[in-house]
Structure formats: structure tokens, C-alpha cells
Specification:
This protein has 127 residues and is mainly α. The chain contains four helices and two strands; from the N terminus they run αβαααβ. The chain folds into two domains: 53 residues, no CATH class; 51 residues. α2 packs across α4. The N terminus is likely disordered.
Length: 127
């Protein structure tokens, strides 16, 4: 019975020594170090107002019905929508509203792959 305890204790000591012997012998444990750059258009985003969304949906609906920008500007001026800086919507403003929103949506749908900046090995003791 005493020998079993001695063997168990000896085995524990042996295992502990094996772990520490790596360091005692000067062996270093290398680690892979990778620097990665992640970019996303969704990190900082200004929210759209309900009015902006409504105007865009109105314009898209009319464009899908094959109306021209001039026709849409007349319709939008007769509706409840009001421009922010002028008295009425022009065909150019209607085009601009649609173009800017399409550009925003395309940018938000874009998925950027991460860029690997550097790859290297680092020893246990050096970091």
C-alpha cells in the first residue's frame, strides 16, 4: 500500500518535472502571430430618417413604373414630401436622392475580405 502511494507520487513528480524541464533545457514554445486588418462600412453608420426612407421608396416605386425624373419631381411636389433646402423638388434632386441611396446600399452590401498584414513566429519568452 505504501508503494502505490510512492508510485503515484513519483508519477506526479515525474509529469511535473517533464513540463518544467522544457523551460529548464532552454526550449522555447513558438506561437504564430498574425496581424489582420478588418474593414467594414457598417462600423460607423448614420441612421436614415423615416422621411428619407419614404422619399426613396416613393422614387423607386415610380421609377419601377417607368416614370421619368421630371414626372416624379412633379408627383413628389404634389405629395406631402417637402425638400430640406429649396421650395420644390427638381428632376436633378430626385435623381440625386435615388443615386445617393443606391450608392449607400451598394456600399453597405459590399463585403471586404480581411487583409493579412504580417505573419510570423514568436517565442514564448519574447512577448
Amino acid at each position: 500500500m505504501i508503494q502505490k502511494d510512492v508510485r503515484l507520487t513519483s508519477l506526479e513528480i515525474l509529469l511535473n518535472q517533464l513540463l518544467w524541464n522544457e523551460y529548464d533545457r532552454g526550449y522555447l514554445i513558438p506561437h504564430l502571430l498574425v496581424d489582420i486588418e478588418v474593414t467594414s462600412p457598417k462600423l460607423w453608420l448614420l441612421p436614415l430618417s423615416s422621411s428619407q426612407i419614404e422619399k426613396y421608396n416613393f422614387i423607386k416605386e415610380k421609377r419601377n413604373q417607368r416614370f421619368y425624373y421630371h414626372q416624379i419631381s412633379v408627383m413628389i411636389n404634389e405629395s406631402h414630401f417637402k425638400p430640406q433646402r429649396t421650395l420644390k423638388f427638381t428632376p436633378q434632386q430626385v435623381w440625386g436622392l435615388e443615386f445617393k441611396m443606391e450608392k449607400r446600399l451598394k456600399r453597405l452590401d459590399k463585403i471586404e475580405n480581411p487583409k493579412i498584414l504580417s505573419v510570423g513566429l514568436v517565442d514564448e519568452g519574447s512577448h
